[in-house]
Design brief:
With 405 residues, this protein is of the alpha+beta class. The chain is built from four helices and 21 strands. Among the domains are: 100 residues, Beta Barrel (Elongation Factor Tu (Ef-tu), domain 3); 67 residues, Beta Barrel (OB fold (Dihydrolipoamide Acetyltransferase, E2P)); 96 residues, no CATH class. Helix content is 28%, strand content 38%. It has a six-stranded antiparallel β-barrel. Strands 3-10-8-5 form a four-stranded antiparallel beta sheet, with no helix packed on it. Strands 7-6-4-9 form a four-stranded antiparallel beta sheet, with no helix packed on it. It starts with a helix and ends in a 10-residue tail after the last strand. The C terminus is likely disordered.
Length: 405
Amino acid sequence: MPWRQRILLIVLLLLVALALLWAFLPRAVPVETAKVSRGPLRVTVEEEGKTRLRDRFVISAPVAGYARRVALEVGDPVKRGQAVAEIEPMRAEGLDPRTRAAAEARVLAAEAALRAAEERVREAAAVDEYAAARLDRTRRLTDAGLTPRDTLEQVVSEAGRASAAKGSAEEAADVARHELEGAKAALTRAGASAGPRSEKVTVRSPAAGNALAIRHESEGAVAAGTPLLEVGDPGRVEVEVDVLSADAVRIRPGTPVRFERWGGDVPLEGKVRMVEPVGFTKVSALGVEEQRVLVVADITTPREVWKGVGDGYRLEASFILWEEKDVLQVPAGALFRTGDRFAVYVVENGRAKARSVAIGRRNGLAAQLLSGLKEGETVILHPGDTVAEGKKVRSRDASLPPASR
């Protein structure tokens, strides 16, 4: 074989060997990376909430009657003590001839009963007068020694019974007199129209504010306790947020709150005023029953900034449980568990190195580093099964140089 052919064959074999070697060399795994940095860190509980008026008054009918039409409209200003509704007495029902005759008969019967009761009063008074005179006479005879002591005691007992009988007769006469008055009133007012204007009941507002809702706008009959309208001050707005009971135990009165997505350009600041001591069950959108607790907060941002917010407006609340301005932190996506500790993969010279870390506070995005890493070190985010100790890696964002082979 000529020497030139031998040289070409040798070169070809070397190229094939190099190609096979290149094909079987381990490749660097593409990964997402991030830097360990310092900065502010905040731990929050985020939930949706809505506004409500702090003082809301439901004005109800104090008596049963015929309510006149409410002249107020929703949003109208209301002063304290202002008349907001009027209630007239109900019209009495008319009596048919038979019912009227029965009512007249009840009046006559009541008159007769009263006369009989008065006769019994006179009779009881006479008996009482006689018993009192006899008692006086018996006392004098007993003092003179002409009548035994037991006779005096008997006369005293009879005088007491006579006095009690007189009092009972007088009470019975009073009852008969009232029954007569009731029977006469039922007869004379039957079929009459509602009373004069002086009998109208004027319902007044207990506080200043605005009309929030008209519950009974048109005139008509109402029962006692029927809601007529609602009044409240739209300037006194608070926020109610229902949170999971596990989160509620970490929230205290005075906890700062940040309100977002309320419709304005800047977030609103606030503070928790009350965490209700009683929870309730709520079914989530996934059909899971959750124990919830209502948290009430006040907006501390000046009212001029959010003056367009009224009753029942939606917003998102972030309860700030912990916050520091300068914290060494690592992205939460870089953490994974090894036993009972946390660890991360650090990129050193293009290779992944597992390192245990101690973390403190954390939220869904980052965690506070207590030990194990330094500021500026590069960690791998969301390491998968392809990442292992000593494995060559390269950053997808090309922020790291390719691993040397």
